[in-house]
Amino acid sequence: MTSSVLIGNLTQDWVESLRRWHLEYFFIPSTVVTLATLVANPVLLICIFLTRALRQETRYLLVANTLAADMLFLILNLVTLICNTVTAQISWLLCELVTALTVTSYCCAILTVTLMVVDTYAAVRWPLHYHDILPPARTHRILFGVWFLAAVYPFTLVVLMELERGPSHDNMAVCLVLISLGFIQLNHMVGIHIFFFVGALICTGLIFYCYIRLYMVTRTQGIWENRFSRARVTLLAHGLLLLLYFAPGFVFTLELFLFHRADISQDVRVWVSTVNMCVFMLLPRAFAPYLYGLRYREISDTLMQLLPQHWRLNQATVS
């Protein structure tokens, strides 16, 4: 049986499972969360890039890069959900490109939040030399390298698959990253699992190392004694957000592992994929503007300055 027939049968079965369990209703909360986040993120990006002091700080550039990657991911995810809900026919090449962009934006966000932890460690560990280690120009080059590193492997797979398949006019009723990579991994299984699983382990290990070293360096300074100290609250907020960012990636790795298992029913795969795509992957992007953005006093102050004067007066009166 050819790959086009396999893909056609799988996507048709996928659509039937979605309709049988009425999973298309997940589209409603996903759209609401996506639109709310797409309103908050540009506002924070404007605050960062309109203020010279903020766009010269490495931590704010990293926040901006995370928000930008999240916006790209949310837009692609929403477009994919809409097309899948109305069962629009999408060419295989277009689906592969959307898949590559989605993986790139997700991996870029993961790499950037990892760099945010490293940046915090560098600022605490070497406060006198921090600005010399990470000036804005070097941060820009690092962020460019992050996007390149996140994009090189997914787009290489697209090129390899196009060369292997040759000219094709096949269309798909459902375009999902899982389905695209599920068929690609037949020939590139080791590389895909290394890219996702090993990459996630490296980032996780680096994050744990930086946080442990931060605690060891600062434990004698008294900032951890108060149960509700700013250091504890910041660590809790960042830890929660990091968990929300990484958990969907590990679930997706599990999805890839179960994709070709004959003993796993199609309904289970559809349920896991839908919940991960419509819930788990949206949670960190919904919380990020508030946990990473508005918790910075400089961003909050800049946002208040951009608001209309009468609204600021009303807020001050309420406070």
From TrEMBL:
One cellular component GO annotation, for this chain's record? membrane
- What keywords sit in the KW lines? Membrane, Transmembrane, Transmembrane helix
Q: Which SUPFAM superfamilies does its entry note?
A: Family A G protein-coupled receptor-like
Establish whether keyword Ribosomal protein is in the entry.
no
Query: Which PANTHER family does the protein's record reference?
Result: G-PROTEIN COUPLED RECEPTOR 148-RELATED (PTHR26451:SF1002), G_PROTEIN_RECEP_F1_2 DOMAIN-CONTAINING PROTEIN (PTHR26451)
Task: Give all residue intervals belonging to the G-protein coupled receptors family 1 profile domain.
Answer: 40-292
A GO molecular function term, named singly, is: odorant binding
Q: Where are the transmembrane segments?
A: 26-50, 71-94, 100-122, 142-161, 190-212, 233-258, 270-292
What InterPro entries does the record point to?
A: GPCR1_Superfamily_Member, GPCR_Rhodpsn, GPCR_Rhodpsn_7TM
Q: What is its main location?
A: membrane
Q: Can you say where in the cell this protein is located?
A: Membrane
Q: What is this protein called?
A: G-protein coupled receptors family 1 profile domain-containing protein
